[in-house]
Structures are given as C-alpha cells and as structure tokens.
TrEMBL record:
Protein's UniProt name: Transmembrane amino acid transporter protein-domain-containing protein
Amino acid transporter transmembrane domain segment(s): 61-455
Family stated for the protein in its record: Belongs to the amino acid/polyamine transporter 2 family.
Localization terms from the record: Membrane
Record field: transmembrane: 87-111, 138-161, 167-187, 199-219, 239-261, 282-304, 324-349, 369-388, 394-417, 429-452
Nuclease as UniProt keyword: no
GO terms under cellular component: membrane
Gene Ontology MF term list: L-amino acid transmembrane transporter activity
InterPro entries, sorted: AA_transpt_TM
Keywords: Membrane, Transmembrane, Transmembrane helix
Pfam families: Aa_trans
Length: 479
C-alpha cells in the first residue's frame, strides 16, 4: 500500500491507514462505502476530490480533535479545582496539578504513538488484550464503560444544577435530571465525532466564558457569596494547608486527576481523526490550554474566596452572577455529557458490530444497535445518578478506583510492550523504564489512597445526612 510505503520512508501520508479504491478500508471500521456513516470522512474513488479540501466536509481535523479532547476534560473537572486548592493550599495545589498534567500528557502522547503503530486498536480494552490477553481486555473494557457511565451520570447532575440555578429551582430536580438525560441521548446519538465536534466548540467556549465571568466577579466584589456579610472581608486562603487530613488531601489530588481523566477516550477520538499523524499537535494544544486554564482559575478564585469557595465553583459570585454563569455554562455541560454518552455508546456499538457489514451501512440492524447502545448508556447513567445516595462521593470512588489507573497503568505498559526488545539500546531505555515504573507506582498509590479517601468521605456523608434521597426534588444548586 502506498500509504504504508510513505510511512516507512518517514513521510507524513494524508491517509496513513486507508486503502483508497472502490471502497476505503479502515483498520477499525472496516470497509467504508457511500452506504453508511463515514466515521473518518475517508473517500471512495468516486468522491476522491473531497480530499483536496472541500471546506464544507465535516471531519475531525486536528483542531476539532483538540476541542474534543478539551471537552472530555474541561467541564466537570474545572469546577472543582478551586475546592481542591482549598484542601491542599495554593503552592502544593499548583505543584500537584502540574505534576499530574505532565504524567497525563505523557500518557496521552503514548496513546498517539501506540495508535500509529497498532492501527487496529480502537479503545483501551484492545490495549488490555495486547498486554494481558483476554483477562486484560475484559478488565479494561468493563472499567472503561463503568467510568464513562458514571461520568455521564455526573454530567446529568451538572446540567440539573445549571437548570436549577438559572430557573431559581422552578421545578423538581428529578425532572431536570430527566431532561438532561433526554438531551444527552438525542445529541449523543449523532453518529460521528466529526458532526459532534461543532457542539464541542460551542460547549468549550461557553464553559470557559462562564468560569471567567465568575472569576472576574469574585475579584471585583472581593467577597464571595458564602462569606460573612458583616465586617471587613479578608480572604483566608492558605499557601500551604498544613491542617488538612490525609483523606481530604488525597481526595483533592484525585479531584485533580479527575480533571485530566479524559485520557481513556483519546483512543476513541484518535480513531476518527482524518489524519492521525496530526494527533500530537492536537494534544499539545489541548493540554496547554487545559493546564493554563486550570492553574489560572484555581489560583485566582481560591485567592479571592479562600475557604468560602463554592462547589461547584460557579456559585461563588453571588445569586445574580450564579444565574448568568450557569446560563453560559449549560451548553458546555450539555456538550460534555453528550460526549460521554456518545463515546460509551460508540464503544458498545463497535464491539457488537465490528467485523459486520452493519457497522458502516445504514441498515435496520445498524440503527437498532446504535440507538440501543446510546439509549442504554443514557438510561443506566440516569438511574445511577438519580437513585444512588451520596452520588458525588460515589463518582469520586469510581474515579479513584477506575479512572486513575486507566490514565496511568496502561500507558506505561504500552511503552514497555513496544520498546522492551530495545533493552540493549543504551541509557535512554533505562531512564524510560524507570519512568514507566514511577508512573505505575504513582498510579497504584493514587488508586489505593484515593479509594480510601473516597470511602471515608462516603462514610462521613452518611453520618452527616444519610446521603441524598433517590429521585430527590431538593434544589442541588445551593452551595
């Protein structure tokens, strides 16, 4: 294949893993014809002119990829960064954030490298099979689905918080969660990421605008809404919070990990890129913007609010600012949630139909499995979010137990899988092995310690209030 020949010569082919002819063949999706969704917007011989750059063609270019990457991270996670800084202090908070950003950026980079070397890999469970056989595939596949289903449920609750804030709790919260689920299903059922990416653009701009509004507001007002109304206000921010308990500190660390936990979905996003060789530039843009934004928002908001920072942070600016900021944030929260539903549904859909003509053809089977997959994900996420008490603490538990190891362990294993045979190549190999060992050990520590911190938090929540009621009507936007 010409594309493979160009790749061997070190060139950058525009279609590195596709056979172009009467049909186009993709290593993940199989034969792509005119009779179905074009997941990567590849072209058959009759439509080859599209490759020349038709601006109207929907595709996941590197900029769209960067936005999709950002949207799997910025949304739910960023709203908790100031609270994490409150538990840790500004200096430890920033150091830990930068450290986690560095580790996850390396993990994300390894995903791009591994994807180019192993075109057939679609999701992290494929990596599990390469590393540990059938057991590895099952473990990582189940972990992937559980993680994103719980995250989708968390997104639905986030939307309900926004609707409560904007409407000043005009109706029962359970109704708002149901509305969020319906919207997530409808938009999450768009079949290709190329068509979803424009929603991600809107969502990203809106969530960034909302957070900037609150940040500016707390700086101008110089008094957070939860602070005492009488007397002169001085922020009680801490450079180092030496009084924090281990459980609260480790929960704050796992909160920061959660803010970068879009990593497991990067395989899925890369699989629908127009040109996967542009993955690194998308990753660099994503991680640079995300990290700069997290640090800026976290430091500024915690500096002005201190221990009175609200959770989620959009409630820190007072009633009016809260309504305005959530009004802007709602499209961003919706975009995040529909993306979680889409990615999880797409994973299930591909696993059911992979190798079948129905995967890329507009058949009854194709539509039934696709809509059935996204509907099932939506319903399960909705039930979990609405029916389980102390849901937010449960998300933290699942994040520590499943999300953390999926951002650390597989990527170290991927590097070793591809490079172990080079063990006589020199000192650089030894340094990389040491780095992989550090990633494995740090990921294991965060998984175990974060799980412990989440369990302690769940116990404390039950002691204090017994948790939230199932299908509660209570206003969840008050903070």
């Amino acid at each position: 294949m010409f594309a493979e020949k160009k790749h061997e010569e070190g060139l950058a082919p525009s279609q590195p893993d596709l056979d172009v002819g009467e049909v186009a063949h993709d290593a993940v999706f199989g034969e792509i014809t005119e009779d179905g969704p074009n997941y990567r917007n590849v072209c058959t011989i009759e439509t080859r002119h599209i490759v020349t750059g038709d601006a109207n063609v929907e595709q996941v270019g590197w900029k769209g990829t960067a936005v999709l990457m950002m949207k799997t991270q910025i949304g739910l996670g960023v709203l908790s960064i100031p609270v994490a800084f409150d538990a840790l202090g500004i200096v430890p908070g920033v150091i830990i954030l930068i450290t986690i950003a560095g580790i996850t950026t390396w993990s994300d980079y390894i995903i791009g490298v591994f994807k180019l070397r192993h075109r057939e890999v679609y999701c992290i469970d494929d990596v599990g099979e390469l590393l540990a056989g059938k057991i590895g595939r099952i473990v990582l596949g189940v972990a992937f689905v559980l993680w994103w289903v719980f995250t989708a449920g968390s997104g639905m609750l986030g939307i309900s918080i926004g609707l409560n804030a904007v409407s000043t709790h005009a109706t029962c919260t359970a109704v708002y969660v149901a509305v969020a689920a319906i919207v997530a299903f409808l938009f999450g059922s768009i079949r290709t990421l190329g068509k979803v990416s424009w929603l991600a653009w809107i969502g990203l701009i809106c969530i960034l605008t909302a957070i900037l509004i609150v940040t500016i507001a707390v700086g101008v007002q110089n008094r957070p809404s939860a602070a005492p109304k009488e007397g002169v206000w001085h922020s009680d921010y801490k450079i180092v919070n030496s009084s924090a308990s281990f459980s609260s500190a480790i929960s704050a660390v796992t909160t920061i990990v959660f803010a970068y936990a879009g990593t497991p979905a990067f395989f899925n996003i890369a699989s629908e890129m127009r040109d996967p060789t542009h993955y690194n530039r998308a990753l660099l843009l994503c991680q640079s913007v995300v990290t700069a934004f997290y640090i800026t928002i976290g430091v500024v908001m915690y500096y002005f609010c201190g221990s009175y920072v609200s959770s989620p942070a959009l409630g820190s600016g007072g009633p009016t600012i809260k309504i305005v900021s959530y009004g802007f944030a709602l499209p961003g929260l919706i975009a995040s949630t529909l993306l979680f539903v889409h990615i999880t549904g797409k994973y299930i859909f591909i696993r059911i139909l992979q190798g079948s003509r129905h995967l890329v053809a507009n058949t009854v089977t194709h539509w039934s499995v696709w809509l059935g997959s996204t509907f099932t994900v939506t319903v399960v996420a909705y039930i979990i979010a609405s029916a389980i008490p102390v849901f937010s603490d449960l998300v933290s538990l699942v994040g520590a137990l499943l999300g953390t190891p999926m951002c650390f362990h597989p990527m170290a294993g991927m590097w070793l899988y591809d490079n172990w045979h080079k063990r006589t190549s020199g000192p650089r190999w030894g340094l990389m092995v040491a780095w992989c060992a550090f990633v494995l050990l740090s990921g294991t520590f965060l998984m175990v310690a974060g799980t412990y911190g989440s369990v302690v938090s769940i116990i404390d929540s039950y002691k204090a209030s017994g948790g939230s009621a199932a299908w509660s009507c209570a206003d969840n936007s008050s903070s």
